[in-house]
Amino acid sequence: MKASNNDKFYTNLPVNEMPLSELLVKDDLFYEIPESWHVVITDVENSTTAIVQGLHETVNLVATGSIVAVLNIARKANLTVPFFFGGDGATFIVPHSILDCVMSALLLHQKNTGKSFDLHLRVGQVPVAEIYQRHHSLRISKLKTSQLFTINVLLGDGLMYAEEKIKRNDLMFVMAPPTDQQLDLSGMQCRWQRIMPPANHSEVVSLLAIPQEGAKQSIVLKKVIDCIDTIYGEPKARLPIRVTNLKLKATLERIGLEMQARIGRFKLIYLLSNWAKTRLGQLYFKTKKGKVYLNNLIDMLDTLIIDGRISTVISGTQEQRKLLHHALDELEREGEIYYGLQVSKESVMSCYVRNLNKSHIHFVDGAEGGYTKAAWVIKRKMNMQSTLAETHSLASIVA
Fold first, then answer.
1. pTM of the model
2. 132 CA to centre of own chain
3. b or e along 299-331 (b: 16 or more beta carbons within 10 Å of the residue's beta carbon)?
4. CA 196, CA 346: separation in Å to the nearest integer?
5. How far is Cα 97 from Cα 102, in angstroms, rounded to an integer?
6. Tens-place pLDDT, residues 345-393
């Protein structure tokens, strides 16, 4: 469907309540992103190396900081915007009216990230109008996944085009951040210990699946979701986190990491006050209001991303994972997908908490860089396929 070209486009989209596999094949429930909007992407450069060096939680926190910065700007403008967490970065689609504020904030976040962690955060943007001019598409819908949580479901290859262009560094945003702008990362928290899977599960799986060129995107994504549903059961049954497994990590080191990401410098008052709040939080979560917050937290886990691809974190047994491998191997052999799958013993969670009622989102990844390692597997497969195709082409010429 065509959509009106205004700032409230996404805010006013209807919310669908149906199984995801059903929504994916209902073209009439997807709307084109307005041409005046922009795709904004952040990405930690050389994230795989950083994760190997033990910086997986830092990489996750930097990605979360990107989302918090953008959502705080949108909130002040009384807007909601679609976003997609990627483990080592994030993607947003924003109206032109807040683009300069968004990019300035992300460049400040980039500066803090380099100073605090010696990591380079790519920041770039591509106009949606250009994406359409290059014959790519962006169509979006909303899906209610719990009583409290709604996710974006995006079809089309527009984000992949923008991501590839930004990673080639030929459209980096070079405007210097204004000296008077403050980076607002209020609400960002990183205070949970690594989380063991539920008692009847033995592992956490970070899965990425990308339709191969020529495959019908919506149909292929539906097939992957159907495989997951059949093997792991309904979405709630495969959530990697349960309330009983949550434990706060009230260490100065953990809060110091959060402090560096949020304000980019050491501040003793911040460190001590937030350490004290975290200690008190352990008591708060035993109260009636605290227990409500924890139950809401489970409802607001961000464990499924549909951005023209599928990224999801699930938990289950080794037997279930073997069945999933078999099913996805078959789809890959048939030329429908590339997939990457990383197995972890725990999950990690970073959070955006505006208040303790219903305004919070919790970003989940497999421990030790689940999404990033799964993406590396896909990249290796695609490179091997490209090399094989070139070899066959050369052989035919020689023959």
1. 0.88
2. 24
3. ebbbbbbbbbbbbbbbbbeeebbebbeebbeeb
4. 5
5. 10
6. 999 998 887 765 667 898 999 998 999 999 999 999 988 876 665 555 4
